[in-house]
TrEMBL record:
Gene3D superfamilies: P-loop containing nucleotide triphosphate hydrolases
Name listed for the protein in its UniProt record: NB-ARC domain-containing protein
InterPro entries, A to Z: NLR-like, P-loop_NTPase
Length: 336
């Protein structure tokens, strides 16, 4: 804000005791000549904007420094749906995922050279593996451009063990379109979001941690948490909303049970984050115990449930994280 105030030559802005944010607000509110546009980029921390998940959190809010006038407009970018709706109400513009054509075009633009026609299949496969995420696409194209690595070789790296994939996604890259202090690697960006959710939404991070232990597709609600009087349903709804708001999880419903999808790269990042915190072992154990208890015997009567749980039982039984829990052998017996 100080740089903005100095650029605008606001009187008193360089005073040591100046309330810089308030001076900028007053200047923008009272500016009669011309229209202005204020851009607030990466406004992801809802507490800073005055939206608190409990009354014990700080009362300081940046909202009081936002000018309210018809003389200008404020554009806010955020990864948090909750922040967006809190600040903009009904004026939220949700960015839809890139189409396949848009994703491949972004990748090709990042390379700076047209992709040969014979590479089209590999290119489409690559952007799909990157979940069509703009930041991941730009990072991958920059890495390939820098190392002259063949596209197929980069694809092969994405199939390597988790540690290799995370290392690849943690590579920094230069992006002149972003401001100089921007955090570029996609894995680092996600880790910051995980820490923020852990601090302000502990139930949401617990749900995300559980989901990271199972297969990434069609994770049944019953595997993530059990209906209990200890956790209010409203709290669960709010926690899931946090995860879907960050696009870490996609919620889906069918006639049988609510379930969730995670992209593989997000799941790998969560598992790596848990591993660095030395808690992945504990989460794997808890999820193994829960699944072993809920997984039905191979009986025609329970065929639907058995089929729905099977991919998750296979993922846990094949995992190398943690020790061999007795419940793993129970799962293997029930899987047949």
């Amino acid at each position: 804000m100080f740089d903005v105030g100095k650029k605008l030559s606001i009187p008193g802005i360089e005073d040591e005791k100046a309330d810089v944010k308030r001076l900028v607000k007053q200047w923008l509110s009272n500016q009669p000549d011309g229209q202005w546009l204020l851009v607030l980029d990466n406004a992801d921390n809802q507490v800073l904007w005055g939206k608190r998940s409990d009354t014990k959190q700080q009362e300081f809010s940046l909202v009081e420094y936002l000018p309210r006038t018809t003389n200008g407009s404020i554009l806010v970018t955020t990864r948090s749906r909750q922040v967006a709706t809190f600040l903009a109400g009904k004026q939220v513009i949700a960015l839809s995922p890139l189409s396949l054509d848009e994703a491949t075009e972004m990748f090709t633009d990042g390379l700076g050279t047209p992709s040969p026609a014979e590479n089209r299949t590999a290119l489409e496969t690559l952007v799909e593996r990157l979940a069509r995420l703009p930041l991941a696409i730009v990072q991958a194209s920059a890495y390939i451009n820098k190392t002259q690595l063949p596209m197929q070789s980069y694809l092969n790296l994405l199939e390597k063990p988790e540690a290799t994939v995370i290392k690849l996604l943690s590579k920094d890259f230069g992006d002149p379109s972003r401001y100089k202090d921007a955090i570029n690697p996609v894995a680092t960006t996600w880790l910051i979001s995980f820490e923020h959710i852990r601090k302000y939404h502990p139930l949401a991070i617990d749900l995300l941690s559980s989901m990271a232990c199972f297969h990434e597709k069609s994770i049944p609600r019953s595997l993530v948490w059990e209906d209990s009087s200890e956790i209010d349903e409203v709290d669960i709804i709010d926690a899931v909303a946090v995860l879907t708001g960050y696009a870490f999880v996609i919620q889906q419903s069918d006639s049988i049970e609510e379930s969730y999808n995670m992209h593989r790269l997000v799941q790998l990042a969560v598992r790596n984050w848990l591993r660095e915190r030395d808690t992945l072992h504990d989460w794997m154990k808890a999820c193994t115990i829960r699944l072993a208890r809920l997984f039905p015997s191979r009986n025609h009567k329970y065929k639907t449930t058995w089929t729905r749980y099977l991919p998750h039982a296979q993922r846990i039984s094949e995992s190398n994280d943690g020790e061999d829990f007795p419940e793993r052998y129970q799962l293997l017996e029930k899987m047949g």
